[in-house]
Amino acid sequence: MAIRGKHILLGVCGSIAAYKAAHLIRLLKKDGASVQVIMTPDAADFITPLTLSTLSGNPVLTTYADRERGTWNNHVHLALQADAIVVAPVSANTLAKFANGICDNLLCAVYLSAKSSVFLAPAMDLDMWAHPATKANISRLQQAGNLIIPPGNGPLASGLSGEGRLAEPEDILAFLTNHFDESRPLTGKKALVTAGPTHEAIDPVRYIGNHSSGKMGYALATELMRLGASVTLVSGPSDLPKPTGLANFLPVTSAAEMLEQCVANFNDADITVMSAAVADYTPKVTATQKIKKATAGLTLELKKTVDILATLGSQKKISQVLVGFALETNDEQANAIAKLQKKNLDFIALNSMQDKGAGFAGDNNKVTIIHRSGTIEALDLKPKSEVARDICTRIIALLP
Ligand code: CTP
Questions:
Q1: CB-ligand 1 contact for 210 (6 Å cutoff)
Q2: Beta bridge partner(s), residue 200
Q3: 335-380 per-position pLDDT tens digit
Q4: Is pTM beyond 0.85 here?
Q5: CATH of 7-180, one of 2.160.10.10, 3.40.50.300, 3.40.50.1950, 3.20.20.70
Q6: Is residue 327 lining ligand 1, measured as CB closer than 6 Å?
Q7: Catalytic residues
Q8: Residues 143, 247, 308, 336: what is their CA dihedral angle, to the nearest 10 degrees?
């Protein structure tokens, strides 16, 4: 376990989600880390220091001075001792202080004295999270090298629902474990993966879609994370549970939305794998109201979507690895080779609809990997998790 023996300094801010800090401490301790908790003054309104000191096995610190013991909590020493500083939950207020160097409590002073990696797991209401001021603070903190553990989407303490929930303690642990596991070949690498189908709206209730389940893309995202990469998953509509430990989960509906997210994240990605079954055509016009069955027949006019993979291929740098999929029913290899060349890929994973037991919804897949060099490898039918492993092995071999 990569986190065994590590000393984690856990900052806890005033937020309803502070209760999750208790579970996070248990997970960290179970995996062999030692934990020192520092609470902001407001955090004690949400969870008692007694709970967190009992679970961590260390007194919880909040102020510079401990008047009862007549001692001073040395912020520089606390920061230097830590193998990682994790603030979970970090409130909008503390994010703003960190981003601007404000130092009005012990946690802020420790943050400013940090030499180790700093992980920030925000928790706040959806509008606070979406506010341009918060976004600007996050971007500034990221530029300064802080690692953001993105909040999840779901019910919030306010009764509203949306983005802003503190990441689950298991996700936070996965982030830390990834960070410390230097034995993994993709540690420090960023990966972008697309998965699932896209839905192209015809009117407010109907769409053009396909049978892609997202299983292959989710398996790839999971495998890339297991190998140490920091993974952004852009997913079309899928019923699958979100893989644990993602750096970014970007759910999208249409090909246009998927294009936007891919273009925004491609430049930073060392590895990009496009396994999504993107619609090639979308309605020219999306009706704003439900189309009534007024006539005997209906003709829909479609327009081409942008080829996302080809777009990325045209921007690809030599250091980036770009992998695509090809789904073919006939002239499989010739068609796949044409796609590989046209889209400027390092290799393409060819799925043939002729192969029994492989394909969209199942748990197995059979792919033929065609490399830019011309090498062709026909792999056996196997679980998608193993296909993901095979693909990642080839990706690792290509990395500079
Ligand atoms: N792809 C894409 N954007 C599109 C269509 C496809 O990024 N608008 C990507 C897919 O994610 C896949 C690869 O391109 O990695 C090949 O997809 P496929 O459907 O097999 O081929 P197309 O290029 O769409 O060509 P055709 O449908 O004519 O076979």
A1: no
A2: 208
A3: 999 999 999 999 999 998 877 776 677 888 999 999 998 999 999 9
A4: no
A5: 3.40.50.1950
A6: yes
A7: 210
A8: 130
